[in-house]
Structure formats: C-alpha cells, structure tokens
C-alpha cells in the first residue's frame, strides 16, 4: 500500500516552524556544510535507517527538506510508513533560499544579515 506524501511550500513551512514544528534536513554532511536553514537538524538520508527515530515534529508533523524535494519526499514516505507524521518541503533548499528564508553558509560566505557576500 503506497503512502501519500503531503507537501508544504516554504510559506506553510515557515508558518509551521513559527508555530513549533521542527525541520529536518536529509542531505549529506557536505551539502549541509555548504548551506542549511539555521533551525534545521541534520539527519542524512544515508543514516536514516539508524536515526529515523530522532525525527519528531513535536505537536505537528516533522518538516523534511533536501536539495530540491526528491530525497525528502522518499524520506517522508518512509517515515509515514513507520508511523512518524511528516511532510515534504516542496522545492527543498532551492525554494527555501529563493523565498528569502534565512540560511547558514560555509564560513565567510554570508554577511551578518544572512545575505550572500558580494565581492566588488
């Protein structure tokens, strides 16, 4: 029996995060190191079998993010099958950044306002 994966866009994800939901990033360490949401918790997809029980959205379904939304959709399906309520962040970190949400970049890659540094 296929599990239906529920998606949320960045606006809905932000609303849920502000209301206490938790964000889990399932990309690998190198991707995380390059850029990630400051409120996210890293649980790489490659470690999911050992660490899936760490994913808990609190009172709301956990929000799961990857680079573009494909890996996180697979993780959400697996979590739902395991009884862990979760939703997929449509468009992943690409959409998150495009929507102007805050990010943490590798050392020296952003200024104090979270904006990318532009060298002139």
From TrEMBL:
Signal peptide: none annotated. PROSITE patterns: RHODANESE_3. InterPro entries: GlpE_sulfurtransferase (IPR050229), Rhodanese-like_dom (IPR001763), Rhodanese-like_dom_sf (IPR036873). Residues 17-105 form the Rhodanese domain. Pfam families: Rhodanese (PF00581). This is Rhodanese-like domain-containing protein. It comes from Curtobacterium subtropicum.
